[in-house]
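Format notes (please read before filing issues)

Several people have asked whether sequences and structure tokens are stored in separate files. They are not. Every record keeps both together, in the order shown below: the sequence lines, then the token lines. Line labels are part of the format and must not be stripped during preprocessing.
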Amino acid sequence: MEVSAMKLRAAANTHVGQSRKVNEDAVLADPELGLYVVADGMGGHKAGDVASRMVVETMADYWHRVKTKNPPSFLEPMDMDLPENARHLVNSILLANIIIHEAQKKPEYLRMGSTVAAVLQDGETLWSANVGDSRAYLSDQGRLVQVSQEHSMEAEQRAMGLTDTLGEVSPGMKNTLTRVVGQHDRVDVFITPVNPEPGDMILLCSDGLTNFVSEKGIDLVLDDHSTSIERKCEILIEEANRGGGGDNISVILLEVLEETPWNKLKRKWRL
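Then the structure lines:
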């Protein structure tokens, strides 16, 4: 029989911030689908809120079809070393990319796009997939580890060591993304497995959090064991607004719950 899946508690929140008139972020937290998504519509572009909503709605519809044993066809060859559900996670983002790219044929949607950071629960494994600079973190016993891959000129310059003597990224590069959902007719999706332990947390967030709260500040909030994850989401948003709130802020927190003795026994003996 199947091994029982890990137990998760989820909380999500989003806020327009202090400077924007429209919230171009969209979030999805659906325990029944095992799917959690943060999408950040392209700031300054037309219909960024439409693009982010297309991402979460397309992915939710895709996973409803997977759960009802009617999955969409794969849009391109997939890495066969990935389990089927991981391949479907990538495929759901590829489908969102096609839909947004096609929508740009309408003048009002020209050049719109979105980032995406998603986590899928697949039994005892979580799969993290992303495009752009929305991030996924693992909070592991007081350590905050980024598990997503950042697709921006800033991140790529830092990876190649192309910084000046002051350690600053070249001017104009900080907010330039190298991968965006919907920008081109295809997109490369980064995906990686995450295997958290009971008590660990997963954070998904838009850059409206990470641009205004340091990783140390985020870690301090997540490491407070006296605070619920719902309140932690609120505090993170409050801290981002306190730090300037110059963008929309979206947060999803997943907490891996302690197993009961019976569940541990079932998992050990695969009952």
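For reference, the curators noted about this record: Residues 8-269 form a domain with the Phosphatase 2c; domain 1 fold (CATH 3.60.40.10). The chain has a mean pLDDT of 90.
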